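Table S2 (text version). Query chain:
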Amino acid sequence: MPETLIINRIEKIKRKICLQFLIGMLIVLSIFTFYYFYIDLKPINYFIAVFLTTHLFFVFVPLLLHFETFKPLIPVYLIYLAIFLYLDILYFWLFQQITVFLWGIIFPIALTLFFEKKTVIIWNISIFLFLCTIFIVAPFIPKDSLSMPTPSQLVMINIMTFVMSGCFILFFIYYHSQLDQIRESQFNNYKPEEEKYLSDSENGKFDTLYTGILQYFSDKKPYCNPDFTITELAKDLDTNVKYITQVIKIKENVNFIVFLNTYRINLVKEKIAQNDHNKYTLSYIYNQCGFRHQSTFNKVFKEIEGITPSEYINSKGKN
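Corresponding structure-token output:
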């Protein structure tokens, strides 16, 4: 499957994820709003009603815009959602309820769908520290002005929280699987199109670009990111996908996917040479080197090295 088609397909799925999640949030907020007003749980009922109303704005964003257009708004929505969850968790923590913390699990699962590992780590740490301040703020909140839910009402709220947060977690896990399958097809089925190569007089440009690619791979180690694409490489080197495909084909006589995976396999071999396979699991090693699934790793390793990873490790052990 050509690179551009894969990227377009991934963007469509991410747009679909955003839309379905926002609609799901509308349904969940509507249910909680209705129940909180029904049991007259003040002031959380008014607060969630305001959040429900303002949430309608975000639903129209993925309906009207392409994913790349509204992608910069995702951090804005995350901040907005974190503030809502903060107040919601704070309210119920005053009554020693911990089930509401389940909503916080959504963040680390959802973030990995849209951001790179480094960004996900920064976001998760920030949100975690933000939510931890609840334990500092809670003692200063007077409970007298709040409506205290009855034990039966708390049971009902906890059941609703458990079921609905669980549905969202399963929702994101499902789409993680979908995106992984598409990326695997990129590695397993990608074949570069026939290119019209540049003339000999332009070999200097190819040499410069090739040197830039090698330097980039040496400095940045982008192959450790399982989601790294040729499009990102072209953007960072201020060139285009066609030229990178051409120069790798000319200099290495392989396509970009093989070129990328060769770096990954070499890193795996380097870690095996350092005896890392006796300190960590093999899955941990190939995950650190840019492979997400064992089946893909085994297939690529055998294609490049001619033997399976276990056979390679055994041969090194004998040597």
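Notes on Table S2: The chain is about 75% helix and 0% strand. The chain has two domains: 3-186, 200-318.
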